[in-house]
Amino acid sequence: MSGVIEIEGLRKTFHSLRHGRRIAVDGFDLLVEAGQVHGFLGPNGSGKTTTLRALLGLVRADAGRMRVLGADAPEHLPRVAGRVGAIVESPQFFGNFTAYRTLRLLAVAGGVPVRRVDEVLEQVGLGDRGHERVKGYSLGMKQRLAVASALLKRPELLILDEPANGLDPAGIREMRDLTRALAGNGVTVLVSSHILAEIELICDHVTIISRGRRVAAGRVSEVLAGYDRDECLVRADDLPRAEELLRAAGLAVTVAADHLLVGGVPDPALVSRTLGEQGVWVRELAPVRPDLESVFLELTGAGPHPALPRQVDHAPADPAAAPVIDLDVRGVEA
């Protein structure tokens, strides 16, 4: 299967006198297809940023094959660099430059029409602050400037590492709307973020990495469905009696302070019928569906159910790519 981004078997090891040998990425696969808004998730230290840096030629991989927009990466990445926009980690800007001057220099260096500067400043919500010095910007404003720099070239592929970093709730919503608008115009977006609820709102596909390895990949809905235990939250007028009746009906019941969690219930009507027939009246009956945060915590070893499968794979990547080059992504960041 071919895609806009294809990574197969990526491996990267770091060595240092202080920490010795550390495997950052260990046989990682990733497939991002055209038109997707693809979430790339993992705990701190899981290998997300190393993967993105290797993909963009900022670090040299030890093994693996990669392709970006059909070009072997990193050797042939310069052929497609003009079609890629990216911010990785926290881009740095000259504090005494204004946002406009910063973007204008990047536009000139990248052969981009200068009129794009005003367009991208408006696009990220900095239209009225573009002539202020960057050193006076908040963290969120600097993040907006970084996204503006990545949009200068009207990229076909946009790679965003923590784009909502430092943004307030209104800014996060604006970034969400911007991402959706870009996807609606045919831009493929790969976004890494710690705000899992936001990823669930804007992404149609997701890949989760833990300890350098892929532990889940596929449509968000499919990944979540793999962890749906058909559970219901039940509140009743006689909770101990409800527990007794539901256990007698062969259902798995977990008792909490003011409710029951009943598992293995594909149809909630079974609960209300079982209790109602015995004169126990249900006050609340609500299906409990997994969200991306709970699945993420379980897959990465931080959740309450370590016995769950460690691999959920709804979209196996089968890329045909190659090794690694040097790409100056300042124009991508730039």
From TrEMBL:
Family annotation (SMART domains): AAA
Gene3D superfamilies named among the record's database cross-references: P-loop containing nucleotide triphosphate hydrolases
SUPFAM superfamilies the UniProt entry points to: P-loop containing nucleoside triphosphate hydrolases
Superkingdom of this protein's organism: Bacteria
Coiled coil stretches, renumbered: none
Domain called ABC transporter: residue spans: 5-236
Presence of keyword Transport: yes
PROSITE patterns: ABC_TRANSPORTER_1 (PS00211), ABC_TRANSPORTER_2 (PS50893)
Keyword Nucleotide-binding among UniProt keywords: yes
Keywords (A to Z) from UniProt: ATP-binding, Nucleotide-binding, Transport
MF annotations from Gene Ontology: ATP binding; ATP hydrolysis activity
Assigned protein family: Belongs to the ABC transporter superfamily.
Protein name in the entry: ATP-binding cassette domain-containing protein
UniProt organism field: Micromonospora radicis
Taxonomic classification: Bacteria, Bacillati, Actinomycetota, Actinomycetes, Micromonosporales
